[in-house]
Amino acid sequence: MAYVTKATTKGGRNGRAILDDGGLGLAMALPKEMGGSGEGHNPEQLFALGWSSCFGQAVLALARKHGLDGQAAEIGCYVSIDKDEISFALKAELTLRIPGADKEKVKALLEDAHTICPYSRATRNNVPVTLSVL
């Protein structure tokens, strides 16, 4: 096993989430759009942060292969949650922007990174994902 981390949450979406190493603790709150106070963070925000960072590393690992500057890459991760026929479900959009780069090369890099990013692999066939070049 390369790495393991653990978080503990009390109070669900209106509680407190803490990393067990003490490095981060966050007040959690249901978003206003879902009837909450919005005065805290929510799991979708944290998921978007993690996925965009992880995806950025995949872009860095593959950029040279595509003749692109991975350090200039800007990754966006939009995570939405909405009701479905069972309960609630996630959707996502990953965006990649590399200023001044050829859009077709950026698109190829985006698709390639989506195949190796651990978040992309974990959500594949479970979460609808749109890939967009900006």
UniProtKB/TrEMBL annotation:
Q: Which SUPFAM superfamilies does the entry mention?
A: OsmC-like
Q: Which InterPro entries match?
A: KH_dom-like_a/b, OHR, OsmC/Ohr_fam, OsmC/Ohrsf
Q: Which GO terms describe its biological process?
A: response to oxidative stress
| Classification via PANTHER family | ORGANIC HYDROPEROXIDE RESISTANCE PROTEIN-LIKE
Member of which family? Belongs to the OsmC/Ohr family.
Designated name of the protein? OsmC-like protein
